[in-house]
Design a protein that fits this description.
mainly alpha; 77% helix; 2% strand
Length: 373
């Protein structure tokens, strides 16, 4: 029987013992803040190119926005798979099974890097064809293809960050990924301004800034994992894929990833319809989507919190906590639903239509994943 050893790091939350009602929000809100910060990477790209790229600003904003559903499809698929990592590690920690935790950590890290390259290579080849199939206007297509190709170069480190975050969440540590992402987000904004204002770049500048920022955040988390306690401690020498653990991760994570990807596919279809309306409408929709998706991030954070808590309690054989978790999670989601509805009413719906060239363009032009559900 595995030896029962307590986790040492004070950032890690005890999900098995004690009350749940105060721990669930403490876990979920940093997860929501992390997801919102990731979305703000895209928002800062749009803000900078929309203000500092001169005559090309409308096409640049449209180019960044036209890529959002494609990038979302890739990220949603792999974030779903990372959820499998979360569950497997949380369950093993509940059983005090250090060996499985170690195998899952090293398998997940290596899988994320390999997955990033598997996405990057065909993406670089078919970027222009994908965007053309989405009816991206000719004046936007060169910018959009350039942005997507640069972004895809960073896919290995972007996926690595998401899988590393899943490892930290599985032991109840949601603060470390948030702090690291907040710092890299500040760097992202500064690099955006430097590349666009100082070096006179356009979408290529903000794409490079995003990749650099994500690379730094993933490297920092990698180092923190290497210095972590013995449960989730990472060693470069131990990086290998364990087929059994990978199968368990995919068994849980792949269906979750496909489910998330279905909503991303619907966004691609909607984006293709928006693209057919022209550059101005694409730019307006891009700005709106960054506000709308915040509500989804909050809801999703509570589902991730519940998944992690249930994983550890199930592994520890605590069915009583599992039942309490379901009730607490439903109550918290109901509370935040009211807040999200108020937010969407006062933030997403403008008092007046935005007029451009005789066309009324409402900023809430595209459905968010919440609205689709």
């Amino acid at each position: 029987m595995p030896k029962k050893t307590k986790l040492k790091n004070s950032n890690k939350m005890d999900m098995i013992n004690g009350p749940i009602w105060n721990k669930l929000p403490r876990f979920a809100l940093p997860v929501a803040a992390t997801a919102i910060l990731e979305q703000l990477f895209n928002a800062s790209d749009i803000a900078v190119v929309g203000n500092f790229t001169g005559a090309a600003k409308t096409a640049s904003v449209a180019a960044v926005g036209a890529n959002s559903p494609v990038i979302g499809l890739i990220l949603n698929l792999f974030i779903g798979i990372a959820l499998g990592t979360n569950v497997i590690i949380a369950n093993a920690i509940g059983r005090y099974d250090r060996e499985t935790v170690q195998r899952a950590v090293h398998t997940s890290v290596l899988t994320s890097i390999i997955g990033g390259f598997l996405v990057m290579i065909p993406g670089e080849i078919f970027a222009a064809q994908i965007l053309s199939a989405m009816s991206v206007p000719e004046d936007v297509l060169p910018y959009a293809a350039l942005y997507l190709r640069i972004y895809l170069l960073g896919m290995p480190v972007i996926l690595l960050y998401n899988f590393e975050s899943a490892v930290f969440r599985s032991v109840g540590d949601t603060k470390t990924p948030l702090i690291v992402l907040a710092l890299s987000g500040c760097l992202n904004v500064l690099l955006n301004l430097f590349f666009v204002i100082v070096l006179k770049m356009t979408v290529n500048g903000v794409a490079i800034a995003t990749v650099i920022s994500n690379a730094i955040s993933s490297i920092v988390l990698f180092i923190v994992l290497m210095k972590s306690d013995k449960y989730i401690k990472l060693s470069v020498k131990e990086l290998r894929i364990n087929k059994k653990v990978l199968g368990q991760i995919l068994k849980i994570g792949l269906p979750a990833g496909i489910q998330s990807a279905v909503f991303a596919v619907s966004n691609i279809i909607i984006q293709a319809a928006i693209n057919s309306l022209g550059t101005i409408v694409i730019a307006a929709s891009s700005a709106a989507f960054n506000i709308e998706v915040i509500a989804y991030d909050v809801f999703n954070s509570f589902s991730q919190a519940c998944t992690t808590f249930v994983g550890q309690n199930y592994g520890a054989g605590s069915a009583h906590h599992d039942r309490r978790l379901r009730h607490e999670n439903i109550l918290d989601i109901r509370r935040f639903s009211v807040v999200a509805l108020i937010q969407n009413h006062y933030v997403c719906v403008p008092d007046k239509p935005v007029a451009h060239g005789g066309t009324d363009i409402y900023s809430s032009a595209r459905l968010s994943p919440v609205a689709q559900i």
